[in-house]
Design brief:
Mean pLDDT: 82
Helix content: 25-40%
Low-confidence stretches: 18-26
Radius of gyration: 21 Å
Strand content: 15-25%
Order of helices and strands: HEEEEEHHHEEH
Number of helices: 5
Distance between the termini: 22 Å
Length: about 170
């Protein structure tokens, strides 16, 4: 039988091991896989749409970033340092990779608009490209979680050894 401490350690280990794993599907409600996003300036960026409009052309609906857990609009300050287009174009699926995760029709983006600086995060009804962001866990935070789990296991072993020796 496992003690409560071991269950906590096991739960933390399971969370760390499974965080960020996702299945991809076109126009998906699945989590956005890391393979269709880029990390730049401490944020994970998704090129979410070829328009900055909630509804476009009578057919497409651009979902809000929170349609996928953890995503949000970039702040004005963050938009001052958007990723270079080359980072998006280097993705295995190309620059359009994240569009199916927030659009009901569009699966493409427009590199010419991006290159021209026509990029927003918050929709304004325009043809500008849309970018969404999410936080990237710092490696030090993950390391601290791991060290804490190791410390809990060692403390439990020490407690049991003392109980056995007493």
């Amino acid at each position: 039988m496992m003690s409560g401490l071991k269950w906590i350690v096991l739960a933390i280990a399971a969370f760390v091991a499974t965080s960020g794993q996702a299945q991809a599907a076109l126009i998906a409600t699945d989590p956005v896989p890391k393979s269709v996003t880029v990390v730049h300036n401490g944020l994970r960026w998704a090129w979410a749409s070829p328009v900055a409009s909630q509804f476009w052309g009578g057919g497409n609906e651009l979902k809000v970033p929170s349609f996928h857990a953890g995503w949000r609009y970039a702040t004005a300050q963050e938009m001052l340092s958007i990723p270079p287009i080359a980072l998006f174009q280097a993705l295995a699926g190309g620059a359009a990779a994240a569009a199916p995760y927030w659009n009901t029709v569009f699966t493409h983006v427009d590199p010419s608009d991006y290159n021209a600086g026509n990029v927003l995060s918050v929709p304004d009804g325009s043809h500008y490209e849309s970018l969404y962001v999410t936080a990237v866990p710092e490696p030090s935070s993950i390391a601290l979680l791991g060290l804490g789990a190791v410390g809990l296991v060692l403390a439990e072993r020490r407690r049991r050894r003392r109980a056995r020796d007493a």
